[in-house]
Structures are given as structure tokens and as C-alpha cells.
Design a protein that fits this description.
By secondary structure, the chain is an all-alpha fold. It has one domain. The chain has nine helices and no strands. α2 packs antiparallel against α5 and α2 packs across α8. Keywords: Membrane, Transmembrane, Transmembrane helix.
Length: about 180
């Protein structure tokens, strides 16, 4: 019985392609559309909206600063605009790169940073820290806290990609195998 167990699970432990491929598939199935829809809420009108974020984008990313200037974007600094643009573009570009398996490790690191900033903004900018159900808690038998529970799984999924890479069905792998001049 032990030999059969070892034979089955030894093969599985050598299947390096499986974990990274499934991580990208699960990311695509659970988080890709979430981030893209979130990014869409930040775009301004028309094509120029890529470079001129909506007022809601500023309110989502800098809630207290927007409140302080009574939601008048023109009173914010170029720094605020740069952060909002970078955050908006990141919600489209980084998930797409992960799904395509291009620059996967770097993109996954970028997404981890994005999720950390997103979580801190939700907790301190939007006041989620005052609501225990938003923050959540580990080891409490209730696994539905938005920050500590759900986002811990998001970060773990992305850490798998940082450590293991994109896997064989990826542009990273295709580029690695391409003949070098």
C-alpha cells in the first residue's frame, strides 16, 4: 500500500507544469474579470479616458483626499493623477500578462503589490478597518473576511506564479525555447 501511495504521489510531485498552469487558469477564472471590471470603472469618457480617469477613480484610490477637496479633481496634484493612471492601467495589463503567461513572475509580483495597496486603501481610506467583517480574522472558523481571508488566497495564488513561473502553456515558455541569435 505504501509503495502504491509513493508511486502515485512521487509522479505528482514531479508534475511541475500542473501547479503553475492551474494557478494561471484559476486566476483567469476568478480574478481576471474582477480586475478588468474594476479598471473599467476608473476610465474616463471615450478613448481619451485611458489618460483622463473618471472622478470615481480618484474617489476609489484617494477617498480622503477627494473628500478634502470636495471631489474637485483639479485640486489634486499630478502625483495623484499618476497614481490613479498607473493603478488603472495595472488592473488591465498585469492580469492580461498573467493569463497570457508573459513576464509572469514580474506581473504576479506587481499584482501582489497592487493587492496590498488595494487592501490598505480599503482598510484605511474607506474605513474598513473599523468593520471586523471587512478585515476578517484568521483562525476564527469564519472564512469570509474580505481582506485577511479572501485576499490571502489571492496573494498565495500569485506567489505560486512568482515561485513556479507560468508553466509550459505560456508565452514565457515559448520565448525561452525560441532560438537565440
Amino acid at each position: 500500500m505504501i509503495s502504491l501511495y509513493n508511486a502515485i504521489f512521487d509522479r505528482l510531485s514531479r508534475a511541475d507544469w500542473l501547479l503553475s498552469t492551474l494557478a494561471r487558469l484559476i486566476f483567469a477564472g476568478t480574478l481576471l474579470v474582477y480586475f478588468w471590471v474594476s479598471g473599467m470603472t476608473k476610465l474616463g469618457e471615450g478613448f481619451a479616458g485611458l489618460f483622463s480617469p473618471s472622478v470615481g477613480a480618484y474617489a476609489q484610490i484617494f477617498p480622503k483626499a477627494m473628500e478634502a477637496v470636495t471631489y474637485d479633481v483639479t485640486q489634486l496634484s499630478p502625483f495623484h493623477t499618476a497614481v490613479v493612471l498607473a493603478g488603472t492601467w495595472a488592473e488591465f495589463i498585469l492580469p492580461a500578462l498573467i493569463v497570457l503567461g508573459l513576464l509572469t513572475r514580474l506581473s504576479a509580483l506587481g499584482m501582489i503589490g497592487f493587492i496590498i495597496v488595494q487592501s490598505l486603501t480599503d482598510l484605511y481610506g474607506h474605513g474598513g478597518i473599523a468593520h471586523s467583517e471587512t478585515l476578517g480574522a484568521w483562525f476564527d472558523r469564519i472564512p469570509d473576511g474580505v481582506i485577511l481571508d479572501q485576499r490571502a488566497f489571492w496573494v498565495f495564488l500569485l506567489l505560486v506564479l512568482v515561485v513556479k513561473g507560468a508553466g509550459p502553456l505560456s508565452l514565457d515558455n515559448a520565448l525561452r525555447r525560441a532560438p537565440q541569435p
